[in-house]
Amino acid sequence: MIGTDTISRVIGQDVYDESGDKIGSAAEVYLDDETGQPEWVTVRTGMFGTKESFVPIRDANLTDDGVRVPVSKSKVKDAPKIDTDGHLSPQEEQELYRYYGMGTGTDTAQTMTTTTETTTGMADTGMADTGRTDTGRTDTGRTDTDRTDTDARGTVGHDISGPTTDDAMTLSEERLNVGTRQQEVGRARLRKFVVTENVTQTVPTSHEEARLEREPITDANIDNAMDGPAISEEEHEVVLHAETPVVDKEAVPVERVRLDKTTVTDQETVSEAVRKEEVEMDGDNARDRDGRI
To answer: What is the pLDDT of residue 148?
Structure first.
């Protein structure tokens, strides 16, 4: 049950029907002049919350999500169109009772008066828990000029989708923060191995060959020529020499190698979707600062 002590928690909350479907947001609470208890709540519906419908909260419950009322969303949608001028006439009240199939309340002559969110939960100081009479509330006690966009909020306009904060809403947008981070992309190794290849070089060599030389008999060599038998067999030999290539191998250092790193700077383009909030106006005579609708 919702009492006068919890009215401030109702205003601005989401309103759900008996099946859990969201109807809209609570705007104003109307009190029974006879009992002083909450009897009706106006619920803003529609895309921009411009339509207000009366919904009974006599048997409603206040939950963590908002307000749960014992009627269907479709029932509220087709509710009688009654102006939310801060007061319900007996005829308007009876029309709502008949539509929602409720009793006629405590008195067929009773009237309804609205209350909005204040620090005490009751908008009018004329409504108190003690010393309260029917004559303490009359139609002349509230006029159209008493209800403005600044009532009980102190700002021009107020939030319709939740609790009121101040007179403006904040627009936010996502911004792209681009940076770099270092990560391992690969490794380079330096290793040595042995290969065999053929090397060909030309080396000059020399060798000795036998050559027959003849000389005539002269007075200078006659004595040597006549030494020995006149007719005989004889052998004479000469040792011949030749050079052959000789190969020898040795390991010698030829150079030193090492791995090093260098930094190369490239340009890369990144693309990402970001969101931002925009605002639009809707309603009668809604114009911006430049006078445009």
So the answer is: 42
- CA pseudo-torsion sign 203, 208, 209, 213: positive
CA atoms within 13 A on the CB side of 183: 3
Nearest C-alpha neighbor of 33 from the set 82, 74, 86, 73: 86
Taking only the tens place, the pLDDT of each residue in 9-47 is: 888 889 999 989 999 998 888 988 788 888 889 998 876
**Domain 4-146 maps to which CATH number in 2.60.40.10, 3.20.20.210, 3.40.50.300, 3.90.50.10?**
3.90.50.10
**Nearest Cα residue to 162 out of 70, 84, 67:** 67
| Phi and psi angles of residue 131, each rounded to the nearest 5 degrees, phi first | 65, 25
Q: What is the C-alpha separation between 53 and 226, in angstroms, rounded? A: 164
| Amino acid at site 47 | M
**Main-chain phi, psi angles of 93, to 5 degrees:** -65, -45
Residues 293, 76: Cα–Cα separation, whole Å: 31
Is the pLDDT confidence value at 85 over 80?
no
Q: Which residue has the higher pLDDT, 265 or 83?
A: 265
Q: Which positions ≥6 away from 110 have C-beta within 8 Å?
A: 32, 33, 34, 90, 93
Distance CA 147, CA 291 (A): 26
Query: Which alpha helices (H) appear in the chain, and where do they start and end?
Result: 7-10, 73-77, 90-100, 222-225
CA–CA dist 43, 50 (Å, integer): 10
Distances (CA, A) of 70 to 49, 55, 162: 21, 9, 21
